[in-house]
Amino acid sequence: MFQINLKRLRERNKWSQVDLAKRLGVSQSTVGMWEAGRNKPTYTTLIRIANEFGVSVDALTGGHSNYTPCAPTFPEANLLASESAAYGIRTTLPETQRITMPDDSMTPEIHPGDLLVIRAIPSIEPESLIAFLYKKSLYVRKVFFAEETVIATALSASAPPICFSATEYENEGVLLLGEVCELVRKYF
User: Fold this and answer.
1) What is the domain count for the chain?
2) Cβ-contact 109, 187 below 8 angstroms
3) Are residues 40 and 90 in the same domain?
4) Where are the alpha helices (DSSP H) in the chain?
5) Are residues 148 and 112 in the same domain?
6) Bridge partners, 142 (sequence order)
7) Is 45 helix (H, G, I), strand (E, B) or coil?
8) Does the predicted TM-score (pTM) go above 0.70?
9) Do the Cβ atoms of 102 and 134 come closer than 8 Å?
10) Are residues 54 and 102 in the same domain?
11) Which segments of the chain are extended strands (E)?
12) Residue 115: is its pLDDT beyond 90?
């Protein structure tokens, strides 16, 4: 199913195999082998392909993926309180807040130092761009769901996905700040 959906999405966007390969940083022969069903991308690359087309991994694989999501992690207890205190965040988060993009994980769309306006949301929605605190660090990631797991992905291949429970994320030390609703580019 993956190879059929990949080719259909590529052709719908009027991209050649070479065009898609350049966007993903792989060779044209790699894309050709994916479309012929002779090879499969890594899970991280699969997420990048889905992001490139603006679809979910399930839509790309037809919901019948042989890929297994990374296992959720379980940070130590009381991490939420220490993360909140470290960032000066109140227990009740404001409706909107501004943060600065902390790293280059979402380049080329969001650059380090860009100002992001975050809107509070009651729960995580698939394919939204969210900001959250995890293990004493601030992250901005696009989210996808695989069963009951949230996979928070970066655009940079050097930034691995962060996985956590879709319903118990607060117990796993994830403090959801909200959804990115506006971006102000920082020019150097």
Assistant:
1) 2
2) no
3) no
4) 2-12, 17-24, 28-36, 43-53, 57-61, 79-86
5) yes
6) 129, 153
7) helix
8) no
9) no
10) no
11) 96-100, 115-119, 129-134, 137-146, 149-153, 162-165, 174-184
12) no
Question: Cis before residue 108, ω within 30 degrees of 0?
Answer: yes
The CATH number of the domain holding residue 14 is: 1.10.260.40
Q: Phi and psi (nearest 5°) for 102?
A: -80, -20
**What residues contact residue 77 under an 8 Å CB cut-off, 6+ apart?**
none
Averaged pLDDT, 2-17: 89
Q: Are residues 111 and 154 in the same domain?
A: yes
Instruction: Evaluate whether 25 touches 157 at the Cβ level (below 8 Å).
Output: yes
pLDDT tens-digit map of 27-67: 898 899 889 888 888 766 777 887 788 777 777 777 644 44
Whole-number Å distance between alpha carbons of 166 and 22: 33
Q: How far is CA 102 from the centre of its chain?
A: 15
The DSSP bridge pattern shows strands 96-100 and 137-146 to be unpaired
Residue-number span of the structural domain to which 154 is assigned? 79-184
Q: Per the domain annotation, does 66 fall within a domain?
A: no
